[in-house]
Amino acid sequence: MSLLDRLHARLERQPLTRHWRVGFSGGLDSTVLLYLFARLREHGLPGDLQAVHVHHGLQAAADAWVEHCTQVCQKLAVPLDTLHVHADGAASLERAAREARYAAFAQVLPQDGCLVLGQHRDDQLETLLQRLVRGAGVKGLAGMPETRSLVAGRLWRPLLDEPRSALLAYAEAEGLDWIEDPSNADTRLDRNYLRHEVLPRLRDRWPGVDQVMARGARHLAEADELLGELADLDLQRARCVDHGFAWIPLPNLALAPLQALSEARQRNALRAWLDPLTRQPDSAHWAGWQAVCEAGAASDPLWRLEGGQVRRGAGRIWWVPDAWQVAPQSLAITGQETSLKLAGNGRLNFLEQAAESGWRIGYRQGGERLFVPGRGSRELKRLFNEQGVPPFLRGRLPLLWRGDELLAVANLPGLDGLPGGGRLEWQPADGMGGFELG
């Protein structure tokens, strides 16, 4: 069976797709893939076909590569979309370029579209070895998935079971031209070192190592799928516990169900929970979770991760994004308002009673007191403690003042009443794009 026939057989097992986007760098892999899809189009490929080239600007020849890709696409009558990106390589240029590339792909992928990439089995083996020497867990050692979701569509690597030699043979038989990236020979880069120095020796020693490692990756992918199902069960138990702060628009979990799990299951559940929120912590960084999990109820531990923190409060753990670390700004009220936009802190509504000119919105500084009907003047700190207000929330709760008199605290039952009988309602910003920040 030819390479085209094998691709066609795999295509028949894929969901119906109307928008095909081929990641096209101009190198061997993507060139073969684009030609194959152009042939599939001749045989009735449903939907539109378009190539996408990402211009990183990291090589002097990058502009020439765009011209090469343009000529190839004109020859095949395939539209080409060229995307210019900037890779911030402060930590790892390879990783930064990859992240910029996938972000660009995600932006141009249509609803229900499929991004097709040309990674092959040799790429998979390099990925496995690279992750192994970095101490990756089950998910990492499962390698690159053949398919996964990508924003409103999906990503597919149809050549992942094909060796590079099969792609090279096809390209030579068809007389294709492709770009040779000179950086691919630089063995100072980890992936290139594995490709040129390590894998050839492994193959000399164990001729069947490619198939064995690919099979091992599939086994680990199955194990990762089972761990994902277990995480879903554990997270479901931690999510279904009711609490009194459902109006806080931050991801959260009940702590007690997590504490009842073994340490390994805790980490497994938290990896799944954190996956859409932040970069996964490395092994040493999990000490931060232990501090949060084991701290006393009266303490305020935090686990700092990229883009935010995991905090405790009200018997739960919360993902608190970095935007919540910025102190909100006070606001003077100059008219009879019923709704106020708070800079960086969502929106404040005056229910059943409009605000009065001269009132102001402030935030906790310490030492505040509030008159509570039937109880007299009480320290705000004590009132927060009585209602179990999470520590990370206390500095963001809008306080309504008239001169030096604290009138109300938004959203807290018994403390949110306005002088005329209305109520102060706060709709917080989530700091992650779901609610406006001002």
UniProtKB/TrEMBL annotation:
Domains (record comment): The N-terminal region contains the highly conserved SGGXDS motif, predicted to be a P-loop motif involved in ATP binding.
Domain Lysidine-tRNA(Ile) synthetase C-terminal, residue spans: 359-426
Binding site for ATP: S25, G26, G27, L28, D29, S30
Origin organism lineage: Bacteria, Pseudomonadati, Pseudomonadota, Gammaproteobacteria, Pseudomonadales
Gene assigned in the entry: tilS
NCBIfam families in UniProt: lysidine_TilS_C (TIGR02433), lysidine_TilS_N (TIGR02432)
Family: Belongs to the tRNA(Ile)-lysidine synthase family.
Enzyme Commission (EC) number: 6.3.4.19
TM stretches of this protein: none
Keywords, sorted A to Z: ATP-binding, Cytoplasm, Ligase, Nucleotide-binding, tRNA processing
Highest taxon, organism lineage: Bacteria
Enzyme class: ligase
GO molecular function: tRNA(Ile)-lysidine synthase activity
Species per Swiss-Prot/TrEMBL record: Pseudomonas benzopyrenica
SUPFAM superfamilies cross-referenced by the UniProt entry: Adenine nucleotide alpha hydrolases-like (SSF52402), MesJ substrate recognition domain-like (SSF82829), PheT/TilS domain (SSF56037)
Catalytic activity: cytidine(34) in tRNA(Ile2) + L-lysine + ATP = lysidine(34) in tRNA(Ile2) + AMP + diphosphate + H(+)
Role this protein plays: Ligates lysine onto the cytidine present at position 34 of the AUA codon-specific tRNA(Ile) that contains the anticodon CAU, in an ATP-dependent manner. Cytidine is converted to lysidine, thus changing the amino acid specificity of the tRNA from methionine to isoleucine.
Subcellular location(s) per record: Cytoplasm
This protein's name: tRNA(Ile)-lysidine synthase
